[in-house]
């Protein structure tokens, strides 16, 4: 009898990611936490912490796991901002991303890890060029959250 792989489908399926926008409201200056990507695509570009969802986790669990792996930060409360699903948002193929955010009101230690080459806080007025569609997502978040 032929064994059936339960993950083979007749039709292609998009990949799913979770990303985090971490804002800091310290000293009346709003900053955003970004990672510098260590690998392609967009190697060397800044991006939100995040990544692909494992089969056994929710989008929220993946967001928290990726945040910890890439920045060393543990956050219990993340709020879902929006799901982004433009067709060509990732050069690797069809990827849908669920974006979460939070505001930190006190300094936290950050340390780049996993596939993040560097991690850094940026003032919202001095955000560098971002990977993928993250600039558009940040603009969306700023408007939605009145920042």
What is the CA-CA span between the terminal residues? 60 Å
Subunit organisation of the chains: single chain
Q: Roughly what is the average pLDDT, rounded to an integer?
A: 93
Helix and strand pattern: EEEEHEEEH
Please name the CATH topology: Nucleoside Triphosphate Pyrophosphohydrolase
Text of the CATH class: Alpha Beta
Largest sheet: 7 strands, mixed
SS strand fraction: 25-35%
**What is the name of the CATH architecture?**
Alpha-Beta Complex
Count up the domains.
Answer: 1
SS class: alpha+beta
Explain this structure to me?
The protein has one domain (15-144): Nucleoside Triphosphate Pyrophosphohydrolase (Alpha-Beta Complex). Helices cover 16% and strands 34% of the residues. It has 2 helices and 7 strands. A hairpin with an 8-residue loop joins β2 (29-37) and β3. The longest helix has 13 residues, at 59-71. The N and C termini lie far apart (60 Å).
